Amino acid sequence: MTSTPIADLWPSLPGGSDARPEAAYRLLQAAVESFAERGFHATTTRDIATAAGMSPAALYIHYQSKAALLAEISQAGHAATLALVREAAAGEGEPVARMRRLVEEFTTWHARGRTVGRVVNYELHALPEDAYAVVAALRLDIEREVSALIEEGVTAGVFDVSEVRTAARAVTSLGIDVSRWYTDRSTETPEELGRRYGELVLRMLGARV
Amino acid sequence: MTSTPIADLWPSLPGGSDARPEAAYRLLQAAVESFAERGFHATTTRDIATAAGMSPAALYIHYQSKAALLAEISQAGHAATLALVREAAAGEGEPVARMRRLVEEFTTWHARGRTVGRVVNYELHALPEDAYAVVAALRLDIEREVSALIEEGVTAGVFDVSEVRTAARAVTSLGIDVSRWYTDRSTETPEELGRRYGELVLRMLGARV
Fold first, then answer.
1. Which pLDDT score is estimated for A136?
2. A-side interface with B, Cβ within 8 Å?
3. Do the Cβ atoms of B181 and A173 come within 8 Å?
4. Which of A153, B22, B100, B138 sits between 20 and 30 A of B63, alpha carbons compared?
């Protein structure tokens, strides 16, 4: 099982209707793989262009710099996970059922999208200032969605949590770290891991399940 | 609050009795900071030597390469956390008390030693093959200690866990990821975070606390 292509991780982006040329996707995919393998600083625009089967000059038609590629990857990755978290949090059912779905999907995303996940979570320091501000706001929104759902469960008497922010941090942290350790050799499928993590998190939040 | 110097993170190493020259510590410290900031691949031996206030030639007296520095940092960091996990797991008291101590100390270590923690956990792919084998064995030992303590608690009827390996992975993952997100601006001290994570993990394992 290999890591999921980025086009499947942020379905709002793929070309066609938004007229994004296929070459831009190849560059994003090549940048994700290069950054994940060598780190942002050790990757050159030439590395990325070569991996995408283009010349460096062709790369600059689409992106001004490797930082512009990182910014797009990071923003799109964070926007995709925020959308997933929002949809689960605002979905049908009681807080327990929504939290379960949130953790299942957040975990599965980070197992499937581990290559993107590594770039998105471990290269934040390399983002240009304006892109960092956008990403930091998206991260804060993710934490707030999780906190709000925990608080809703506490108010409803189905969660029992003393420090909501710490618990919310633990919930997102567990999911994010999956992108570090999950590999092709992992014996659990992304969905199995998601279901098991859903159980573990609900217990952590004091839900009687 | 700044990150703890490496000499405090693996107390078995500091010079004197083992005759390790002070210059070697300065190089290790400089390497940790450089790798954490720019990543291994983008760091040169000259960067490290300069940060340690030495010439590149002086660096080679102590270390053959930047990979040799990474190998020592990674092995020592993993050995230190394994020692901490072993001591807590083999300590006094019931499985619940020992697991609480294990999580508290593992979490506190990763908050305090976050700079080392980042290098140790996110630059594994850059290790030379022999060093990687050593580190992989240490990581497996950490997971096994945690799994064995969970199993002991299950047998004693104080933990309720269906997938011991997944639960053990979640326990170590929560602690390791602290080195990614914990910063100087975090409002919880490393010890407070440790105590709160201790509570959350015990609940996750089905302990009635």
1. 95
2. 37-42, 121-122, 125, 162-163, 166-167, 169-170, 173-174, 176-178, 180-181, 188, 193, 196-197, 199-201, 203-206
3. yes
4. B138
DSSP assigned state of B40: S
Residue B3: its pLDDT value, please? 60
For residue range A59-118, what is the model confidence (pLDDT) as tens digits?
999 999 999 999 999 999 999 999 999 999 999 999 999 999 999 999 999 999 999 999
Size of interface A-B (CB pairs under 8 A): 81
Is the predicted pLDDT of residue B152 greater than 50, yes or no?
Answer: yes
Q: Shortest CB distance from A166 goes to which of B41, B196, B201? A: B196
| Letter string b/e over residues B32-63, b meaning 16 or more CB atoms within 10 A of that residue's CB | bbbbbbbbbbbbebebbbebbebeeeebeebb
Domain A66-204 fold is Tetracycline Repressor; domain 2 (1.10.357)
Q: Which residues of A touch B200 (CB under 8 A)?
A: 166-167, 170, 204
Which pLDDT band, with edges at 50, 70 and 90, does B108 fall under? very high
pLDDT at B19 > cutoff 80: no
Q: Which residues of chain A have a pLDDT value below 70?
A: 1-20
What does the alpha-carbon distance between residue A207 and residue B142 come to, in Å, rounded to a whole number? 29
Q: Is A155 exposed, middle or buried (0-12, 13-18, 19+ CB in 10 A)?
A: exposed
Q: For chain A, give the mean pLDDT.
A: 91
- Please give the pLDDT value at position B8: 64
Write down the H helix ranges in chain B.
6-9, 22-38, 45-51, 56-62, 66-89, 95-112, 114-122, 129-155, 164-181, 190-204
Using the structure block, give the residue that is written with the tokens 């309720």. B160
Residue ranges, CATH 1.10.357.10, chain A: 66-204
- The boundaries of every CATH 1.10.10.60 domain in chain A are 6-62
CATH of A6-62, one of 1.10.287.110, 3.30.70.1280, 3.40.50.2300, 1.10.10.60: 1.10.10.60
Q: Which of A40, A161, A166 would you mutate first to test chain B, the one with the most B CBs within 10 A? A: A166
Q: In chain A, what residues touch B166 (CB-CB under 8 Å)?
A: 188, 193, 196-197, 200
pLDDT at A8: 64
